[in-house]
Every structure is written in structure tokens, then in C-alpha cells.
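Task: complex structure prediction.
Instruction: return C-alpha cells for all chains below.
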Amino acid sequence: MQTWWSLKWQQMRANKHSYILMAPYMLLFAVFTVLPVLVSVVLSFTYFNMLEFPKFIGWQNYTRLFLEDDVFLIALKNTLLFAVITGPISYIACFVFAWIINELSPKLRAVMTLVFYAPSISGNVYFIWLMIFSGDRYGIMNGLLLKFGFILEPIQWLKTEGYIMPIIILVQLWLSLGTGFLTFIAGLQTVDGTLYEAGAVDGIKNRWQELWYITLPSMRPQLMFGAVIQITTAFAVADVSIALAGFPSVNYAAETIVTHLIDFGTTRFEMGYASAIATVLFFIMVGTNLVVQKLLRKVGE
Amino acid sequence: MNTPFQIGSKRLNRPLRMPKKRVNRSAWGTFSLFALLTVFGAFMILPLVYAINNAFKPLDEIFIFPPTLFVRHPTMNNFIDLFNLLGNSWVPFSRYIFNTVFITGAGIIGHVLLASAAAYPLAKHHFPGKKALFSIVVLSLMFTPAVTAMPNYMIMSWLGLIDTYWAVIIPAFAYSLGLYLMKQFMEQIPDVLLEAAKIDGASEYRIFWSIVMPNVKPAWLTLIILLFQILWGSDGNGFIYSEQLKSLHFAAGQVVAGGIARSGPAAAVALILMSVPITLFVFSQSRIIETMATSGMKD
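Output:
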């Protein structure tokens, strides 16, 4: 008797080469990506210090996180602030600059692509911003402001609470024209040119209408992919914060969910608690991504 | 190209659109867009220009007031200082370079092979579980490695990988963005090509190796550069403790942490770090963009 399962089993046997080809990758993917997420979710309901066996404590880690941990609330606020500012701005910047660059001649286009992509590809050299925002008068920012008389003495940029967030946002934006930007450059080059001619005949009046009615709808797949990249990066601010503002930063001014996670995971070894932080971050990132994907499907409809 | 099919590039190499066929574009609009491009282009590139110039500045020029963007009397002293500085530490500078080059090289080779092998069935075969597997890969693009860092540490230590190069290299093999891009690109290979090979009696492995792989060279380059970006800038992810196994980026961090007195060598190490990936990108730009054109998410 042919059951559904035996049919599937037959199909699987017929495709055994497919599974063999995928096996090495999928094994590593399962061990280093899927399993860690599951472990994280499970551990988030336990007390675990890496020495004793994990002890089940229910929702305690989560209640502590949201009700007792003031620093986590700062971290959450900062992370959401980074995401709300750098996410949309970087996404729009990726598109706008790709769109302008696409109008250039091929040679100039290649040069400008490099100019905008260079910061994100240059091997995490964001520490050069330390030289720019150095707290003495030899840092270029203080130097310029002093020279033109805007300030009288050098500002301790990265040690002053009010300046830390804006500077990290600036550097984060500087780094954000990466994979999403390249995707848009590529996407714009594949938009069918005849659509523009047809559009001109159909009464499209200016480049803004052309952008809205032709370019954006034709690029929907790339727009969706770019959104995933930009959103995920926007929620993950940590390295730049640690490199520029220190760890921990002055009065936790630059604490993010990820730095908070690093604090509990690698300094305090409260693995259960750190897992709860990681799980919260996981759901924030994936949730936002899924919602935005739904919205982007509607572009130009 | 001596491969029979050239995927994707045809559309990209078409001549530039003729402006006269297009709708009116106001001169004011053009001007403001290009002003925008210039201003933000300057914002993007000036910090790098400043770092490059600082690398060649003599010490008295780094500490000049007001600070200057461009170097006046270029010197190689900062590089010499950098080598001396790290030469005196018990791990020679060349060792950090070797570590970074080895981690980057091994990670890239493994990733391109494994991700391509997995991408081929996902792009071209029909088998139970295909949709579910690919959905999980797409889902994994939606969170960062920070989420999995700690459980990964435990898994690494169970596997005995902590404090070896492999703790950084092996997870890089299974980097999901690479698989995603490769699969999207492979979907463009014409099915007739694969069927013809099958009729000639080629096995799936042979088809993958001698037909699919040569046809997706642009995607190799893209995977190479994306992984290069991650591994070249990696500081060991907290998995590597031994000083002699640490990466160039980690050494750079220590130079920078030396503070103001080390500004010269810090700029020199920044230049060394950034020059390699940027050069790589300059030479592979068109191929990478060709791959990214297929990266879109279909519903």
C-alpha cells in the first residue's frame, strides 16, 4: 500500500545525491546556527553558570530582565534607538545613492560604488574614528572646531554621555552601505529599460514618478533582500560601541542588547540570563524582519 | 570566457540608457542629486583618506595644530615603528599576518566548496524538505551571530575547538548569506545544460563539479569577498586565547589601545588592514554586482 510516507521515502531515495551534496554544509549549519538558537531558548529558562548542571527556573530570567535590570532597559532603549535611526536611514541611503550612481557613466559608476562601499569593506577599521574624535586638540574634529573658534577647549567626545550615541550612530551609518547597497546597484542595472520608454509614453512626467511607478516595483525582490541585511545590522550594534565608547561605556550611555549579552555571557558567566537576552534579541530581529517583509511586498501595488 | 554560457552579464553590459528616450529631468533636480552624492561621498571617503595620510605622516605632523588632512612630508617611519613595536612583543608581527591570512584563506575555500555543493540541489533539484531547508537558511539571515555566540562557545568547547584556528574557520564554512546568494545565482543556469549532461551519463557530482561550478564563477568571487570581509576583520570571536594564534585585527586593537603615543603605528596598521579587501573589491567589482543582481527575495 502506498502511504504518503512511503511515497516521500521513495522520492528521498531517488534524490539521495541531493542530500549527499548538501550534507556537509547542512551538518555544520545545524551545529553552529540551528542548535545554538535552540540551546539558547532552552537555557533561557534555567539558571546556568557553566559549572553546575542547568537548573530550571521558569520565566524568572525574563521577569528579572524586564522588571529588575535597569541596565537592560537602557540597553533595550539604546538598541531600539539605534535601530529606528540607523535602520531606515541606512536603507534609504543605500537606495538613494545606488539610484544616483546608476545614472553615471560606467567608469564613474565603478569609482563611486567603491567610494561608498569602501568603509564597510575595509576590514573593521572603524577605530580610525578614534583619531577623528580624539579628546585632545590633535583630533581632527576638535582641531577644526578650535581653529574656527566654535569651541575654546577640546571636547571629550567619547567620554561625554550626550555625544556618545550620536557619534556611534554616525559611524554605524558610515559602515552601513554594504551588501544592501551592492544589491541595489545590481538591481537597478537589471530594471528593464523598455519599461521607462513605455512609462514616458504613458504619461510619467518626472524622475520621481518614474522612481515610484517603475523603478521601485521592478526592484521589489532586491528591496526585500536589502531590508533584511540593513535591519539585522541595525539591531546588532556592539563592536563599534565597544571600540569607540569602551566597555562598559560611561554611565552605560552606549550599552546595547548585544554588549549587555557579552557582559553576562563572557564576564559574569550567568549563561541562563545571557541566553534570555539572546532569545529576546532573536525574537526582536526576526519579528521586525518578518513584519517589514510583509510591508515591502506591497511596494508599488 | 570559455564556458558555454555566460549567466546574467548580458543585461548588465547593455549600453547606458539613452536619456532622450526618458522623461524630462529637471536641471535643478540633477544638480541637487549630484550635490548630495558629492557631499556624502566626501563623508564616506574622507575618514579613509585621513587614515591613509596619517599612516605616512611623521610624528610631528600627526601632532600639529591645527590638524591637517593631507601629509606634507611623507615618511615610512610609522610602518617601521609598527614592526618594531610588535617585533619586540614575543609574538612577531608576521605571525599575526600569517594567522589572519590562514584563517581567511581556509575559511573561504571551505565555504565556497560547501556552500556551492549545498546550493546546487537547492537551486536545481526537487526533493522532499527542500522548501523547509531553504526557509531556515533565509530565517538565519534575519539574526546576527551575536545571538548564537554563547551556545556556540559551549558547542566549540565540547568539540575541543576552543583556542584553535578552526573555532573561527569551521563556522565560516556554514555562513548562510553565501549559500543564499549562490543558490539564487545557480537558478539561472539553463536546465537544458544539466539535462544534456545527464543524458551523456554524467553523475550528479560530475555535473556539479564540471558544469555548475565553472558557470558560477562570478558568484565564487562574491562569496570570497563577503567572507573575506568577515574573516579578515575577525578578532577571533573570543574563541582564541593564545597570543600566537591571534589575528591581525586583534593586534591592531592593541596598537590602538596604546593611545595617543601610538597614533602613527595605529594609522599604519589601519592602512594594512584596509588595503587588501579594497584592492580585492576593485578587481572583482563587476562580477560581484552581477551576482548581487540575482540576490532578490521572491515571494
